[in-house]
Amino acid sequence: MIDINDWLPKSILALRTYSRRSFFADLIAGVTVGLVALPMAMAFAIASGVPPQTGLYCAVVAGFLISALGGSMTQIGGPTGAFVVVVAGIVLRHGIDGLYMCTLLAGVLLILLGVTGLGTAVKFIPRPVVVGFTNGIAVIIASTQIKDFFGLSTGALPGDFLGRMSGLAAHFRTISPLTTLISCASLALILVFVRYVKKVPGYIVALFASTAAVWLLHLPVETIGTRFGGIPAGLPHLHIPAFRTDLIRPLISPAITVALLGAIESLMSAVVSDRMSGDKHNPNVELVGQGVANVFSPLFGGLPATGAIARTATNIRSGAKSPFAGMIHALTLLAILLFAAPLASFIPIAALAAILFVVSYNMGEWSEIPQLLKLSRLEVATWLITFGLTVFADLTVAVEAGMILAALVYIRKVTLTTTVSQVTREYVQAGRVHILQDKEIPPYVTIFRIHGPFLFGATDKLEEVLARISELPPILILRLRNMNAIDSTGLQALEEFADTVHASGRGLILCGALEQPARLMKQAEFEQHLGEENICHSVADALKRARILFREIEHSAPSIQLWGRRAADLKSPVLEIAGKAAHEKPIPADEITDE
Description:
Layout: H1 10-14, H2 20-47, H3 52-69, E1 77-78, H4 84-115, H5 127-150, H6 161-170, H7 177-196, H8 202-217, H9 224-228, H10 248-277, H11 283-296, E2 306-307, H12 309-317, H13 324-339, H14 349-363, H15 368-372, H16 377-392, H17 395-416, H18 425-430, E3 445-451, H19 461-466, E4 475-482, H20 488-503, E5 507-511, H21 515-523, H22 527-530, E6 535-536, H23 539-556, E7 574-577
Parallel strand pairs: 3-4, 3-7, 4-5, 5-6
Antiparallel strand pairs: 1-2
Helix pairs in contact: 2-3, 2-12, 2-13, 2-14, 3-11, 3-13, 4-10, 4-11, 5-6, 5-14, 5-16, 5-17, 7-8, 7-14, 10-11, 10-12, 16-17
């Protein structure tokens, strides 16, 4: 039976417990994140090759609708860096009407993904592919800002990365010392506030300081006013874009890319929001909200929109309690358009370039690269090829090639797990330490077991355990005896699982890992998340280790209780993480028949 609550936006659900105190918290957070979004929205628009108001219209219209109709309690939506490369390419090839058509098509695709329940399909994009094109997008965004950061007189630059860098190098002698000074000062302000004054967004300080300097000192640098003639004051106007049937076919591939990027980034941002706020987002409702926002954004002259991780984090840190903070953020930007648009003419382009440098660095996920390099050569190759194609070819090609490579790697990993071997007396004898039938499992221990390949697309099954972590005993044993393969996405899920279990004050022990998972965990230095002593050869060793670990936890955290359950009630709590879903009830040890 369909539960209507499964399809209601979080804004409706939030009304059930909403209060005046929540409203004031949302008001402060919404105004704060609205001011943070102001420079970013304009910077993303300019980097995409469109006027700055296009980014603001997107942040107002799409930002409001994503919060009003989405499935996340505190997510902020709007233009993001992920779309810059795609949008710039579409505008270059098909003009602004082509961009609006593409955004509309992507919005319809996102609605279909959400309505059909395929929102969870995004999880089938593996970690090396996501990191590869995220790294590539960051490099491209940074390369497009070099000209404005240094005030170079280059004229029109080629659209490809190598041609752009060659043109910049050829004209680097035209550098403007004054523009560079403003850029470096803005960059320094952002970094100082990020490092030392975290409660005050550095982007706002850099924007207002640089604008005030240009306005008061009449500095001869390029501004939004000199380049674009300023920003029109007033409400965004409804404008139906010209519908060209000849563009439908060439725009299908870019529309799929925009929809995929929007889905990936919005759901990643929603996960970050969940971790910071303690909420649980609804992926399908979120994608429907994102889709509706991307249908309406181009109708008001806006860019494609998705969940914005940095603005979402700012929203939560500012005290947001519900989606109404996101709506207030959109209304804050609308108020700026209505009453302060003329002042935007004095915003220096150099300051926006500095902001985009910081944004591109933050979105690059550079900390993931050392971890990826520890993995198999196939996964490293997938990341390198996706990264290279993103930078030197085209993002659409990169995503398509990355997914094909990921599928091939998946097939290879699964086929390598198939073996044919003779059952000998030695094999049977060696397996006795792994079986559960003759083991006594104490009441302070729960055993979970993973069956089958733990690859991208299956990692969300661990979330079922974390959803009720507060109900579990002090020691968790994760039995990997039948987990015959793991990839980087699965490994990352295990790392996050271990960190969450430890954060709850509980102990985690892994046991029985087979050759391929054990080798990959060793390469990736997984023991840093768990402790080498908590990675055991067999379930027998794990139970011995559990006794020692329980005494340590009991000594250091006496508040850990056995939740009032007697040993007789916990005859053998063994749960399975495999197949369609985890078992709802513990499986008694005498019913466990697998080796």
